[in-house]
Specification:
Elements: H1 18-22, E1 57-64, H2 76-82, E2 86-92, E3 98-104, H3 117-134, E4 139-145, E5 148-155, H4 158-174, H5 183-197, E6 203-208, H6 215-225, E7 229-236, E8 247-251, E9 256-260, H7 264-287, E10 292-296, H8 301-310
Parallel strand pairs: 3-4, 3-6, 6-7, 7-10
Antiparallel strand pairs: 1-2, 4-5, 8-9
Helix pairs in contact: 3-4, 5-6
Length: about 300
């Protein structure tokens, strides 16, 4: 009998529960996805780190110029016609819809110390969803997994978030028995669905381990970023970049491989490969002004997120 057939036997930090994700609501503070609330040197602050637009501005009215008004907002046509200086007044647009794409495929079902990547991804999705709702915007999500893709369309509704979190929990618990899918193909299919949902000025947050940085994947992401803001959150486990200093056997369910972790040059090569590939990916994303967050499976998810947003 598998774990899936035993109610209440889901080990904490290996699988996630709805109650675990609901606890993220009171932790969703101390950071913001709004450009107007970013520190100049934060991860999302400044035009070189990100192109986050904030909610944008809507034209409201033209009125007489008042000392202190931004001269860039002077309406020169009205000023010329009336012979009196007038300013255009804008109000902040009230909506910045967010779509959260979260990976619950087999590659996420790994953790060497504290949590699996799939649990951390679920926590990140919950933190993001609750924060966006607190800021007054619509939020929805897509869960892509080995057994299918779930879509929850953006709404300004806490019940909608609960539906999204329930989808994540369901897919998360399927990981015990699911068979791995072709990651690139699944993510490409998911991003194609994203394009059908987002129009323009959306915030799209993609949470995954991004196991492979294929050109096709980068192309999909950059296409979405042309008219929307995109943030990538890479979830990783320390063992994916640092082999323990001992001999160990690694397997994928079909094959096994003996790894000599006592070999210093092998450990360094392994680390350099992980860091090098990730750095190239970040550089490529930076060309399109797409921020890339890196979150591990060891430290508390909310603490890492807050640190990333205030990092200089």
């Amino acid at each position: 009998m598998t774990l899936m057939n035993k109610p209440g036997t889901y080990p904490k930090n290996i699988f996630v529960s709805l109650n675990d994700l609901l606890k993220m609501e009171h932790l969703s503070k101390g950071f913001s996805f709004l450009a107007s609330k970013q520190k100049v040197r934060s991860l999302l602050g400044g035009k070189h780190a990100s192109k986050l637009r904030g909610r944008g501005l809507d034209f409201e009215e033209v009125r007489h110029y008042v000392p202190g008004d931004d001269i860039r907002n002077i309406d020169w046509k009205v000023t010329a016609r009336t012979q009196k200086t007038h300013s255009r007044v804008y109000s902040e647009e009230k909506e910045k819809p967010t779509l959260i794409v979260v990976d619950q495929s087999k590659s996420m079902f790994f953790g060497s110390q504290k949590k699996t990547k799939s649990v951390v991804a679920a926590e990140l999705a919950a933190l993001t969803a609750f924060k966006v709702l607190k800021e007054g915007d619509r939020v929805g999500g897509i869960v892509f997994a080995d057994n299918g893709i779930d879509i929850v369309y953006p709404k300004r509704d806490r019940k909608n978030i609960l539906r999204f979190l329930e989808k994540i929990v369901t897919r998360n618990r399927e990981l015990i028995d699911s068979k791995p899918i072709e990651f690139d193909k699944a993510l490409a299919e998911t991003l194609a669905k994203v394009k059908n949902i987002v129009t323009h000025d959306f915030l799209v947050v993609i949470i995954s381990d991004f196991q492979r940085y294929r050109p096709e994947l980068i192309k999909f992401i950059t296409r979405i970023s042309r008219h929307n803001d995109v943030i990538l959150a890479k979830v990783y486990d320390p063992m994916e970049k640092s082999i323990p200093k001992k001999k160990l056997i690694a397997g994928n369910g079909e094959k096994q491989l003996l790894i000599d972790g006592e070999n210093a040059s092998l450990r360094q090569e392994f680390k350099d490969d992980f860091d090098g590939e990730f750095e190239k990916f970040k550089v490529e994303m930076k060309k399109h002004r797409i921020p890339v967050l890196s979150v591990n499976t060891v430290h508390e998810t909310d603490v890492q997120l807050k640190e990333l947003f205030k990092r200089t």
